[in-house]
Design brief:
Layout lengths: L2 E3 L5 E2 L2 E4 L2 H9 L7 E5 L4 E10 L4 E10 L7 E7 L5 H12 L3 E6 L10 H22 L6 E2 L3 E2 H8 L4 E5 L8 H5 L6 E6 L7 H9 L3 E3 L8 H15 L4
Parallel strand pairs: 1-4, 7-8, 7-12, 8-9, 8-10, 11-12, 11-13
Antiparallel strand pairs: 2-3, 3-6, 4-5, 5-6
Helix pairs in contact: 2-3, 2-7
């Protein structure tokens, strides 16, 4: 069944209206008609099965048939602190990590980040695009929320945010003893942070800063993963360990 996100403000007395780009997508692309059922989500973890009552140029009007908590939301709050990569790699990272269950993605400018956003306007434009990718991936994968893509932060700012989480991990190629499973197995955590560097990884002083802030270094084994692979690999392991896969 087709799925769409709406603002909670669009829910009124047993009815839900759909506005914006989804209107033309519903009527012209999907050719959904009055009388058809769809699922809408309020982006806060609630799904609504609705029947379409009317479609005009700007609004789709629906009536709620039933409501329930979204099945697609993991219990663990996973935050990805992703070093900004080159080209369109961030698009893939956002898409795949959204599908797996990440709650929030923080783009991070590190010492080896090649892509530098020159102005606040560039940052906002980039984040708006990334947020649209997250929304499309959330629709496709049956998520109950759309992961929030943050405005890019410095590495120190990301470390400060990570201090609010129960556990934070940083894959590090020089770590030989502490593997990912050892770091999360049996842990009672509601939130977990994942630090992934850009192409070229982290500088030594960044690793030291992370360790000083209590971030746990882990090895991912004998294979070196690309930046666009590492986040989704670690996130998948976390979801499995916390019985979310």
């Amino acid at each position: 069944m087709h799925r769409f996100f709406i603002s909670k403000d669009n829910i009124k007395k047993g009815n839900i209206i759909i506005t914006g780009d989804d209107v033309s997508h519903i009527s012209r692309v999907l050719r959904i008609k009055p009388g058809d059922d769809i699922v809408v989500c309020d982006g806060q973890g609630m799904d609504y099965k609705v029947v379409i009552e009317n479609i005009d140029k700007y609004v789709v009007r629906t009536r709620i048939l039933e409501s329930r908590a979204s099945d697609g939301e993991p219990g663990i709050n996973a935050v990805l602190f992703q070093g900004i990569p080159k080209s369109t790699k961030m698009d893939v990272i956002i898409q795949k990590c959204t599908e797996i269950g990440v709650r929030r993605i923080v783009p991070v400018e590190t010492a080896r980040t090649v892509v530098k956003l020159s102005s606040e306007k560039d940052e906002i434009k980039k984040v708006e695009r990334w947020q649209r990718i997250a929304e499309e991936a959330a629709k496709q994968s049956g998520r109950g929320i759309i992961p929030k893509i943050a405005i890019p932060k410095s590495f120190d700012e990301a470390l400060a945010e990570a201090e609010e989480l129960d556990i934070s991990l940083i894959p590090y190629e020089l770590e030989k003893n502490n593997n990912l499973k050892m770091s999360i197995h049996g842990k009672k955590a509601e939130s977990i942070g994942i630090f992934i560097g850009p192409e070229g990884g982290y500088e030594d002083f960044e690793i030291k800063s992370a360790l000083d802030k209590g971030v746990v270094p882990v090895t991912l084994g004998p294979r070196i993963l690309r930046t666009e692979t590492a986040g989704s690999a670690v996130l998948s392991c976390i979801m499995y360990e916390f019985d979310e896969m």
